[in-house]
Amino acid sequence: MKPFVGVRELRTDLQAKKYSAVELTQFYLDRIADLNDRINCFITVDTERCLERAAVADRQLASSHPQPLCGIPIAHKDLFCTAGVRTTCASNMLKSFIAPYDATVVKQISDAGAISLGKTNMDEFAMGSSNETSYFGGVSNPWNMKRVPGGSSGGAVASVASGMTPLATGSDTGGSIRQPASLCGVTGLKPTYGRVSRFGMIAFASSLDQGGPIAHSADDVYELLAAMEGHDPQDSTSARVKETVLPTRERRYVIGYPESLLEGLDERIAERIQQARRQFEALGHKIEVIELPYIDAAVAAYYVLSSAEASTNLARYDGVRYGHRTETSEDLLDMYCRSRTEGFGLEVKRRILTGTYSLSVGYFDAYYLKAQKIRRLVRDGFLAAFESVDLILAPVTPTTAFEIGSLRSDPVEMYKQDLYTIPVSLAGLPALSLPCGFIDGLPVGMQLIGPHFGEGDVLAGGMAFQRETDWHEQHPSLDEPSAP
Ligand code: GLN
What we know:
This protein is an alpha/beta fold. The protein has a domain at 7-251 and 457-473: Alpha-Beta Complex (Amidase signature (AS) enzymes), CATH 3.90.1300.10. The chain has helices spanning 7-15, 21-39, 47-61, 104-111, 154-161, 178-184, 218-228, 267-282, 298-313, 332-343, 346-359, 365-385, 411-415, 422-427, 455-468, and strands at residues 42-45, 73-77, 115-120, 167-172, 187-190, 210-215, 254-257, 286-289, 391-395, 431-439, 442-449. Strands 1-3-2-4-6-5-10-11-9-7-8 form an eleven-stranded mixed sheet, with helices on both faces. Helix 7 (218-228) runs antiparallel to helix 15, helix 9 (298-313) packs across helix 11 (346-359) and helix 9 (298-313) packs across helix 12 (365-385). It binds glutamine. Glutamine binds next to loops.
């Protein structure tokens, strides 16, 4: 057995009994045992239950109709509730929280036969771009242990990039699947808002949060999306749309190219995106230069809106019903204050404070309302572009993986990491982040953005690119010490 194997090969091997689901699960558990101390991808490894489930999967594999992901291991970001296994959101506040039910996404993936290996590390409450805000410590980038994997789904992408699991779930509010996927050289999709149920996914900013798949290739992302998507009556913003289908014939797309976005971008990254553009042209797709207005205001609008929503979503952690409760308090108010002060980390507090501020009387119009207007303008800009193009090709991140600690003391610099991912989030669009090259041994990614519910074309575009390139088939060499 070897790591970095895709879903189709795993499925064929399992069905041909080349190895059993128990052996495969044990293989990944061994790899986690070997590597997790160095990379810190997993907060919880569910050893016993995953082996039990793998044994059940082996019985199903012997039947004539095994489920599509039968026996294939997966790791869940630690904000998807899992009955019986703790869900911490990488926070002291929830460090011993055990949900009484599974998130819809977790249930659907388990019904599809996949085996959950455990829960992956992340930025606390999904707030961050480097995984450094986790209560359980940072995650290293498998390509260079001194660098961040990105965030907030840092543990999820690093677990896939290091071959500790073939599949992982993540969540993306302003870039948390796409940015780390780009920094770690894996493929990840932020689906259209409403495509994937949010029931049982711990809320950060409810109008933006969206769960999505992370894997080695667009093919595998598609396989996992099929298990995750679908209407859920328990999520009021879940969309009633048909499942994602790939176009039956290879299509030639008109791909929008927002050239002005590349100005000011690190030249080497811009060069990789230009090279991808040429590859698409060589494949017969047509490139059309487009303008996307108001992009420069998107980051500011996002941090006003997402923090406002976070401040209300996180009001429920008061130490009364669940979550951390202080040991010492004088009265009820003091208990709330101390529980929250002790339970939340610095970045989460910063968001709660700024969010509460922008929602308060006298500031609402100047901040929250204005940010909502910008959101609408950004969305309208994309919709106008999609009148003449099928997909949009864009950068994911302004830099490659940065050094651990280098941006920690400068939140605004950290927020700028999300420059290219946030506009897509504000517009609620689907976008695939996929590898398109390397700079000094570190991966670079690009985004293929589609119109609402255009995942089929976004994935088909990614698959076409990955048939011609092998960036997604390069893996870090974890046996040797990483480069300085
Ligand atoms: N980095 C962004 C933030 O800190 C996005 C996080 C996310 O998508 N969950 O808010």
